[in-house]
């Protein structure tokens, strides 16, 4: 029972959020911000696996997000909707989107994980700054490739994902998108937490500290890197798929280095190697962005400034490499303690 | 047990070992002596199959361990499957982790949990100081304690053959003696040991046999006693 306490608490919160959405107690704007929080939690915690736990510097996370966003959108649009670009729906009817929406998201995650190989394989031989350049290059490769495929809208992007969401709502009218965001965000956090706590996770931390030493401790460094990169980019892909459906419109310009930087800022704000830090900073950062919206473009002066101040006075981020349960030991009873 | 024949290795285009041959038999403690840059560490890194750029590339010759050709084997397999453990130069322990976490990490690929728990006890009885500091972060340990940890870690990998690279580096003479005594004890209970050492005095005191390297060649070999008595050894290395 105690073991599942954190899960039960999470499910209760999810239920509460779903009821609030269902009853429309919050206006649509706040609802969308809450969805972004969920997506950003997935993005920052998945990037934390690479930048925080494994100690590499990946600055192309938006690239994987783009792959996921396009795969999920294309699949859903092609399967369930009738539109000018994709013609008639290929599948039996839009009502099936209820069951197949999460499947398309998982496929999107797989595709993003495959693109993650583009970074994982070079990482066997390079690391540090050189690998950072490679991740940057992958980000650009993805963006430019999409820009040059006119069939999917090229640089203009395409829209219509709302139809998929509407199709789901036509079957049963509950806030589907928020439900899937909650489900996938929760699953990713659990998956990452378990991965980091597993034997593989110990291998990831060993690679961060000393790769040669890890290798002579019988850690298969190539395999660990492969899994870590693919897991991280896969989660980013799923987040991208959800992102596309929340916005209802995607274009390659959304997934540039700016977006990658935003995710990176969340990781560093929260603290490298702290999952609860990533969650916390994703919430804070998203809310902060919304509060600073009246400043318009000046917000991009103020936020980097805040980052400079953060790096000067608290370079380890909000949480450092501690978890929330380390800072507030009272929370331990919600999280099963580590066993050695 | 370990047999190296006519081994040539190079870093980039520069050859570091010009065809060395040596042999370590089961249950032995063998020392590899030599000055800086003679190629001692290079030999160890070749045995461990560590990849370039840190380690050299083998261009000719063979390394066989219990009859198996080690050349195409990946380093983590050398450790996990063949049971060869390395105590690297400069220790390379994980400073961020505690003593116990370091030892636990060494059991990464092991499945024999009963033997693992026995091995923990063995390490802690060999190095009682590690037992006192088991929950302390390794960064805060002294150099000698870190060296003990690195040795214990190789042992925890389940290694039946331990390679040590300059274990005496940066240690006080008393600690050096202590460390070699423990190595001798590990050796007596059946673990083969191959130790690379600059400090010929202490290595020859504890080892069974020794090889002497100079500039990428093995120039002398023999039992530790013979080696210690040779005139030119005394002059050049024993002082």
Give the gist of this structure.
The complex is a heterodimer of chains A (340) and B (239). Chain A is mainly α. Helix content of chain A is 69%, strand content 1%.
Please describe the structure with a list of short key phrases separated by commas or semicolons.
heterodimer; A: 340 residues; mainly alpha; ABC transporter involved in vitamin B12 uptake, BtuC; two-stranded antiparallel ribbon; 14 helices; 2 strands; globular; B: 239 residues; alpha/beta; Rossmann fold; 6-stranded mixed β-sheet; 4-stranded antiparallel β-sheet; 10 helices; 28% strand
List the helices and strands and how they pair.
The complex is a heterodimer of chains A (340) and B (239).
Chain A: H1 5-23, H2 28-53, H3 61-80, H4 97-120, H5 129-148, E1 158-159, H6 161-171, H7 176-197, H8 199-209, H9 211-216, H10 221-247, E2 249-250, H11 257-270, H12 275-291, H13 299-313, H14 324-327
Helix pairs in contact in A: 1-7, 2-7, 2-10, 2-11, 2-12, 3-4, 3-5, 3-6, 3-10, 4-10, 6-10, 7-8, 7-10, 8-10, 11-12
Chain B: E1 2-11, E2 14-24, E3 29-34, H1 40-48, E4 57-65, E5 68-69, H2 75-80, E6 84-87, H3 99-106, H4 113-126, H5 128-132, H6 143-156, E7 161-165, H7 173-188, E8 192-197, H8 200-206, E9 209-214, E10 217-223, H9 224-229, H10 231-238
Parallel strand pairs in B: 3-8, 3-9, 6-7, 7-8
Antiparallel strand pairs in B: 1-2, 1-4, 4-5, 9-10
Helix pairs in contact in B: 3-6, 4-6
Order of helices and strands of chain B: EEEHEEHEHHHHEHEHEEHH
**Structurally, how many domains make up the residues of chain B?**
1
From the alpha-carbon coordinates, what is the Rg of chain A to the nearest angstrom?
20 Å
- DSSP strand (E) fraction of chain A? under 5%
- How would the global form of chain A be characterised? globular
The major beta sheet of chain A can be summarized as:
2 strands, antiparallel
User: Would you count the extended β strands of chain B for me?
Assistant: 10
Q: Mean pLDDT score of chain B, rounded?
A: 89
Largest interface: A-B, 17 and 27 residues
